[in-house]
Design brief:
This protein has five helices and six strands; from the N terminus they run βααβββββααα. It is of the alpha/beta class. The longest helix is centred in the first third of the chain and has 20 residues. Strands 1, 2, 3, 4, 5 and 6 form a six-stranded mixed beta sheet that branches. It is globular and about 45 Å long. Helix content is 39%, strand content 17%.
């Protein structure tokens, strides 16, 4: 089955190839406290919501942030292999929105494999469009299983190249 055309939901302006949030590492031999981890998650989600807000498809940026944060509290959206897919169905999204954030050093984000997250594919969709939302989410998750896909996204020079990586893997 050919992959769906996710690239049509991607816009160059909604891709940040170097996320700006910075955090002090924990002390030698220590780990982040639960509060520090949530502060990190909140900061990263806010950066992603700020990016989403550039799309003109966001009704209320603060409510969207709270919806994403509440979704993250249910279970971490970091799926391993350096990937997180924060996602939510919300009235704050006027249409499907997908943004990409990348941090090559990675962020602690409570991933199932305990590895830092380097790629964030954050998506929001209106609650009445379950079918599209589930198709996009499923396709994104499956795409990360394709050999070379993650590496190409990590090595992309800019947002245009990231979109081309998606197009390349849509050819089936």
């Amino acid at each position: 089955m050919a992959a769906m055309n996710i690239s049509r939901y991607l816009q160059y302006e909604l891709i940040k190839t170097e996320m700006e949030s910075e955090f002090d590492p924990p002390e030698e031999g220590e780990e982040y406290t639960n509060k520090e981890l949530w502060d990190i998650k909140e900061t990263i989600l806010q950066e992603l919501v700020d990016l989403m807000d550039k799309s003109d498809k966001v009704s209320n940026k603060n409510k969207l942030f709270n919806d994403l944060l509440n979704r993250e509290k249910k279970a971490s959206t970091a799926i391993g292999k350096g990937i997180a897919i924060p996602h939510v169905r919300t009235m704050q999204a006027k249409d499907m929105i997908i943004v990409i954030g990348r941090k090559l050093e990675g962020y602690e984000f409570d991933a199932i494999d305990n590895e830092p997250v380097k790629l964030f594919l954050c998506m929001a969709a209106p609650p009445y469009d379950d079918s599209l939302y589930l198709k996009v989410f499923k396709d994104l998750a499956e795409r990360f299983e394709h050999p070379g896909f993650i590496e190409k996204l990590l090595n992309a020079e800019d947002g245009h190249e990231m979109i081309w990586v998606f197009k390349e893997f849509e050819q089936g």
